[in-house]
Specification:
By secondary structure, the chain is mainly beta. The chain is 4% helix and 39% strand. The longest helix has 9 residues.
């Protein structure tokens, strides 16, 4: 505020709320801020910002948002307060998120091939690749159970795979060292897991769980 950094907040919880009321994780006592203004959902190195139907709205880099995948150095504006999102590890992952598969009307969009690693300058050692934290997790996939894509399989090979219809309902399946977890990202309706509507928290997936997102039913299963 006014060019001064007032506070640094670690994103050490899966969901952090921002608002004027004292029960929020980040309280901003200002009348321009709604009681429950926005929330940041963090999965591994990735964070999503969600406006909670605030009165005055939420801006990222000067643009109004409802849902936003945060990138390193994004500036969030709430009233006259600004929050800068800092996460150098998230910069390449943000691009990786854009390559994940989306189930859209009319078919499944496959992820583009991975780019080749850049060569190191002459005389310098090559940069070490980040370890794949999910390498020890068994492979898994989802199979579409209804609609035009019924019977098709979508392998869950990315750290994050997004499912649903952008602007309607989107969830992500995160591949973690502890297994696979599904988290709601976008839309008024929450995903349904085995007939039960989920909440905003991440939920672990078990073999043969049935998920419903944006009217599409799919079965999660582990691959031998």
């Amino acid at each position: 505020m006014d060019g001064l950094v007032l506070k640094e907040i670690n994103l050490n919880k899966e969901r952090i709320t921002i608002g004027r009321k004292p029960h929020n994780d980040i309280q901003i006592d200002n009348l321009a801020i709604s009681g429950e203004h926005a929330a940041v959902v963090t999965i591994l190195n990735d964070s999503f910002l969600e406006d909670l139907n605030s009165t005055n709205g939420t801006l990222v880099n000067g643009q109004p948002i409802k849902k936003h995948f945060l990138r390193h150095n994004d500036v969030i504006e709430l009233g006259k307060y600004k929050l800068k999102y800092l996460n150098e590890a998230a910069a390449p992952v943000a691009e990786d998120y854009q390559k994940t598969m989306l189930i859209r009307p009319g078919g499944i969009k496959p992820a583009p091939p991975e780019p080749a690693p850049a060569a190191a300058p002459h005389g310098q050692p090559p940069q070490a690749q980040a370890p794949d934290v999910a390498a020890a997790v068994p492979n898994a996939a989802i199979q579409i159970l209804n609609g035009a894509n019924a019977g098709k399989e979508l392998p869950l090979v990315k750290t994050l795979t997004s499912l649903g219809k952008p602007g309607v309902q989107v969830a992500v399946i995160a591949r973690r060292p502890q297994g696979y977890f599904i988290t709601h990202v976008e839309g008024a309706q929450f995903p349904v897991l085995n007939g039960r509507t989920l909440d905003a928290q991440a939920h672990p997936l078990k073999d043969h769980d049935v998920i419903e997102i944006a009217g599409v039913k799919m079965e999660f299963f582990l691959k031998a």
